[in-house]
Amino acid sequence: MTEPSQPPQPLLSPPAGPVADRPDALSVAGRTLSREDLFGAAGAVAGRIAGASSVAVRATATAETVAAVVGGLLAGVPVVPLPPDAGPVERDHIIEDSGAELVLGAAGDDGVGLPVDLRERAAWSGSEPEPGATAFVLYTSGTTGAPKGVLIPRGAVAAGLDGLAEAWQWTADDTLVHGLPLFHVHGLVLGVLGALRTGCRLVHTGRPTPEAYAAAGGSLYFGVPTVWSRVVRDPASARALAGARLLVSGSAALPAPVFRDLEALTGQRPVERYGMTETLITVAARADGERRPGCVGVPLPGTRTRLAAVEGGGGIGELEVSGPTLFAGYLNRPEATAAVRTADGWFRTGDIAAIEPDGTHRIVGRASTDLIKSGGYRIGAGEVENALLDHPAVAEAAVVGVPHEDLGQEIVAYVVADGVGEQALIDFVAERLSVHKRPRRVRFLEALPRNAMGKPQKKLLPPV
Ligand code: MLC
Ligand code: AMP
Questions:
Q1: What are the pLDDT digits (tens) for 262-312?
Q2: Strand partners, 417
Q3: Nearest atom in ligand 1 to 208's CA
Q4: Ligand 2 atom with minimal separation from the 363 CA
Q5: Residue ranges per domain, the chain?
Q6: Please, which residues have CB within 8 angstroms of residue 76's CB and are 6 or more apart in sequence?
Q7: Cβ proximity of 202 and 193 under 8 Å
Q8: Backbone torsion region of residue 117, taken as left when φ is above 0, otherwise alpha when ψ lies between -120 and 50, otherwise beta
Q9: For residue 76, what pLDDT band results from cuts at 50, 70 and 90?
């Protein structure tokens, strides 16, 4: 006889059961709510959107965004976060491609958006969806074309957060502080749902500035490397973090000098972790483990990793992962999904890594130079090139990431164009896509270097 199966654990409840409510459970950009307030407002959202096939959320860094996202998750409606500064090209693509029926959040310049009222209260009594149901459709850049929708199952979110809670001894006693955007894995999945699932307090600082981090008095801090490099350039703010339990860096490589400066100023070594939109966080330094510059730690519970041979290998290879945190595929793109899966079902990350004898992972580069990481944002060269080519004065465009002290990489565009200046092209991209996808510099060329087949040769571009 088979045991009756247990109903799934609610995604947003700590595994240990209900947590004590606090008047200041959640604070976003200065707006403070109790857990009961948040779930009351989210329950009202859930009641309004129940039955929709998916819902877009204009993901400003506000408590309204958190209530909208939680409302979607309560109702079992897949949530599609929209970067709040997305220009019409990016925004229309995300809404059309995802098929989102509604847009939650104050209307943007397109006039579309259902405001979320934090004063509303409703209890939600719907049942918990199955772990295979989609929690999020997160739009992320590939090397070419428009961003793809990454289908993230609820069970992947739960497994990923529980793995991190175990690795970091993350509990309801923590206060998590960060100021990251609420439309990506780092700020939204870890930084908001992680707090709700562990039951810890969350202080979202609106922007991730050193001063705001210093003033927040947290035990657990999240930042992308650019945030940490700005923190160490503000020693007074850095010293204010000395009493924290864990300073966590991720989304891009933390430069070794920033690691060392953080240790010198705060007395503690940062914890690095590695992940992707498609896999959530898969590898992390543990709270009780070793923390070394350039190392991102060991696989999280349930995750397995291996290296696939690359040309000139020598101990490094393309990192492949499998485990409970993987995405379910790219929305409506079976070929793209098949291309990143191996025959035995592992995910090809596109990152080049080394695994030390003790199991510690180091990320040493990316297989493709057409995926740029700037300020911790993933940006596809092709998407920016297409935006530039939409400008009537631009005949050719090649976009690259150039090493940059603050941003890790800086987006530089090489164009063949007539009658348009650098700033006009930067603004043109910023207005059509998200602001962080704009080139920071534009170089004008007579022609792009091409090979005999006519394909642009980015390696032959002149230095900026
Ligand atoms: C500047 N601005 C312009 C503009 N130039 N606006 C329009 N047109 C132009 N031409 C304005 C913007 O409106 C905005 O204003 C401000 O400038 C933004 O400046 P910026 O220079 O772009 O910001 P910057 O200081 O460079 O940002 C650094 C940063 C940011 C660290 C704060 O890069 C950031 O938040 N990164 C986090 C990325 C992240 O979360 N990635 C996680 C991916 S998940 P205003 O008024 O708004 O200031 C992932 C998985 C994993 O990777 O492993 O975690
Ligand atoms: P995204 O899809 O925006 O989540 O970006 C994922 C990419 O960020 C990965 O493929 C890596 O290239 C990079 N990344 C994330 N975390 C780290 C890290 N700790 N060190 C180096 N690169 C990282």
A1: 999 999 999 999 999 999 999 999 999 999 999 999 999 999 999 998 877
A2: 394
A3: 32
A4: 21
A5: 23-273, 371-460
A6: 50, 126, 129, 133
A7: no
A8: beta
A9: very high
Q: CB–CB of 136/80 below 8 Å?
A: yes
Q: Parallel, antiparallel, or unpaired for β 280-284 and 298-299?
A: antiparallel
Cα–Cα distance for residue pair 415/393, rounded to 1 Å = 10
Please determine, for residue 96, whether its predicted confidence score (pLDDT) is greater than 60: yes
- Please report, for residues 29, 159, 270, 360, the alpha-carbon distance to residue 281 in angstroms, rounded to integers and kept in the order given: 26, 10, 16, 15
| Ligand 1 binding pocket includes 164 (Cβ within 6 Å) | no
CATH architecture for the domain at 371-460 = 2-Layer Sandwich (3.30)
Instruction: Name the CA radius of gyration of the chain, rounded.
Output: 22
User: Residue 101 and residue 98: Cα distance in Å, rounded?
Assistant: 9
Residue 435 CA to ligand 1 centre (angstroms)? 7
From the CB of 371, is ligand 1 less than 6 Å away? no
H or E element in which residue 45 lies: helix 35-49
> Tokens standing for 131?
């772990």
C-alpha 283/C-alpha 141 separation (Å) is: 21
Residue 180: pLDDT band with limits 50, 70, 90: very high
23-273 belongs to CATH 3.40.50.12780: yes
Band of residue 1 on the pLDDT scale cut at 50, 70, 90: very low
The finding on whether 432 has its CB within 6 A of some atom of ligand 1 is no
Strand partners, 396: 416
Question: What is the mean pLDDT of the segment spanning 388-406?
Answer: 97
Q: Which of 276, 278, 319, 371 to mutate to test the pocket of ligand 2 (most atoms within 8 A of CB)?
A: 276
Pocket of ligand 1, candidates 140, 251, 271, 327: which has the most ligand atoms within 8 Å of its Cβ, to mutate? 251
Q: What pLDDT is attached to residue 14?
A: 77
Q: What percent of the chain has pLDDT over 70?
A: 98
